Amino acid sequence: MDDGVNIAARVGSRKNITLWLGAVLVGVPLLAGLVSFVWTPYALSDMVGGRLETPGWAHWAGTDRLGRDILTQLMVGARVALVVGCGAVAIGAAIGVMCGILAAFATRFADDALAAFFDILIAFPTLLIAMLVVATRQEASLGTAILALGIGLAPIVGRITRILTKQVLGQDYIVAARVCGTSWPAIVLWHIVPNILPFLGVNLALQFGLAVMAEASLSYLGLGAPPPNASWGQMLQEAQGTVYSAPWGAVLPGLALFALVIGVNLLADGLRDRVSSQRGEA
Question: pLDDT tens across 107-121, in order?
Answer without folding.
Answer: 888 888 988 989 898
